[in-house]
Every structure is written in C-alpha cells, then in structure tokens.
Amino acid sequence: MRRLLFLALFPLLLNAAYVEHFKWPKDESFLVFLERNNLPQSIYYDMDKEDQKLAEEIRAGFLCQKLLNDYGEIEQILIPISDELQLHVFQKTQGNYRVEPIPIIYDETRHETLSIEIQSNPSIDIKKATGSYRVASIFSNAFKKSLDFTALQKGDKLVMIYDQKYRFGKPYGMPILQVAMIEIRNKYHYMYLGPDDNYYNEKGAQVDSFLLGSPIPNARISSKFTKRRFHPILKRWRAHLGIDYAARSGTPIRSAGNGRIISAGYSRGYGNVTKIRHSGGYVTLYAHQKSFRRGFKRGKTVKKGQVIGYVGSTGMSSGPHLHFGLYKNGRAINPAGVIKVTTAKLRGKKRREFLQIKKEMDALVAMHLNTITVPEPFEDFDAACYLDAKTLKPLTLAAAKDGNEAL
Ligand SMILES: [Zn+2]
Asked: Do 108-208+344-368 and 2-105 have the same topology in CATH?
C-alpha cells in the first residue's frame, strides 16, 4: 500500500526512502533553488527553451514534493507550474539529473454542494461551514460588484455548487464555481458559469466587471493559451500560459487595466518583463520587451491603456512579440475570455447553451434550497500533510517532526 502511494506520487520510483513536502519559497528562482539544494546548475541549462520559460511560472507558496533516499540525497522533485502541469526533476543515471513537464494527476474532482442560512455574512458563514477561504472567496468574487450584501437578513438562504479537485485526499487548487444563489429580502439572485467560462446573472448578462483592454490593439495572435498539451513529435508535455501577440519591435505595449506595477526587470526566460497587479486578485504580465517606458517601474500606478513598454525579443524569444499572461489568485488563466471591449451579453448559439446550463443549475439549486447541506470539512495542508507510514493516517506536523517515518 505504501509503495503504491509512492508510485502515485513519483512516476519513476527507485529506492524511495521518504517524501518531503515543501512550499516554494518567496522570490526564489529555479536556478537558486538548485544551488540551495546542491543540485547541478546544468539541470537548468540542459532544459529546452520552452521548459525554461515554464520554470518562470513557479510561484511562491506552490506545494512541492521531494523524494529523498536513505542517505538524504534527492532522488526526485515535483514542482507544479499550474494546476495542470508540474516539473519533474529526476536522476536519469547516477548523479545525472533531468527535468520534464508531466501532468498533475488528481484523485478526483468532486461536485460539492453548500446550502446554508446566513448567520452573519456570506464570507464568514461559508468559511465556517466548509473550512475553506477559497470557497468563500469564489462566492464573494462572483457577486462582489453586482450585489449589496448589507441588505442581507439572518436566515436568508445561500446555495452554491462548485467543483473541487482532490489530490491525495485533499482539496487542491481553486474550486470552480458552477452556480451560486443568494436570497436578499425574499428575492433570489443567481450567478452561473457560462459556456465561455465567464459568469452571467439570471438575465444572461455578464457581471464579472474585470474587463481587460488588449495590450496591443489589433495585433495578430500568434500563439494561444494552452494549459497543457502533448507534443506528438517531441513526445513531451507542453504548456503556453499566455497569449503571444505578433508585433514589430518597438510597438508600444499598453497596460490591460488599471493597477500598480509590482515588478519591472529582467529574467532569463521572459527577458524584460513587467507585472501589474489589478483589483480582484488579478495580475498581468508583459514579457520579452525591448525596453520599459521611462519611469514605469515597481510601485507606479498605471491606467488602462497607458503605454508601459515596447515590444522586443529579449529572453527566450525567437522574434519580436509580446507574451501576455493573466493570473487570478496566482493561477494562470486564459486572457482571451477576459479581454472585452464592452460588457458582453450572450447571443445566438452561446445564449442557447447558457439557457440549458441555467435550466439544469436552477433545478439543482431548487433541490438543495430547503435542506442544509455542507461538504465534508477538511484539515489544512500543514496540519495533515504527513501520513504515518504504517497506518497511513495523517500525522500532525509535530509528530512528523518527532522523527516518525512519514510519507
Ligand atoms: Zn508566449
């Protein structure tokens, strides 16, 4: 059983001794990580360009695993770069390490239902019922701009149905809201995940008010966003966590929204790269710039449409283009659905698809409306990430540190 669990975690199992879980440290590059772990820098330099760019997607706080042998030497490392793909560092032969992107395997995706009555406010009540800040945040993000929660009364109903991925029996990644309903003064308000991954109210109007402008208006898209795909010729997993715009060197790059520059500097993969934080947990990234606009550095507030830099080919780039990335709560998302000129209303085929989704979701909400339903609560990662090797039950962090053989 124990061996099976190891196999599930690490695809190439050698002489496994134990697994160490760790969170990716703040401000640590892949190269610095290798150095700190006494691993050869050649691991990085032997990676191909695309994989080197993926290494820049590693974010502080990402949950990683290290497999160590009986002598405490690193056998394998798993580092997620998105919720779909991870970098797998492994020893090909003794002392000879390689990196390969591989898919993240989930135990399952659960469709969870939450149906409660308001006691204080939605965020507090959802957190209390589920134990999860993330579930609370997907609810408040969905309604934030369109509803006034101060009018809520005790006993008003709240229903939400969402998908949650599980890994090793624990929730993993952001849950995805399918439908949410909240009663305010005897009136029911709904929010549905539409056929295009945007949120719509019961009238089919898009209410997610975070709408980006194009960083280069009218530019041709030369490469689309893909979370993961298998390259049939290279026989490798690939991801492209952004959109590439083809444009001449020197073309102005515009901020996609109002926000504040959180970094503007050089990185090996993305070259001259600017990151801008916007409201609602969004960050945009503009890579391979020829140069930054003068004065547009860390800390500067920018307006939507303002020029921040110029198209170039710095970093791992085969020609002038802009790599544009969008992140929500640290997770790469497809910018295509968010770049809109005006607030969208669904039409034609998409509207018919939406009405079908709405019908099914309304039926589900109605079914759960009058029954209090709470998903199984879970313990936080830190408290239960170690399993006892014999019983396979979670150990507390303290017990694990006490030298119990943990997995
Ligand atoms: Zn790109």
From this structure: yes
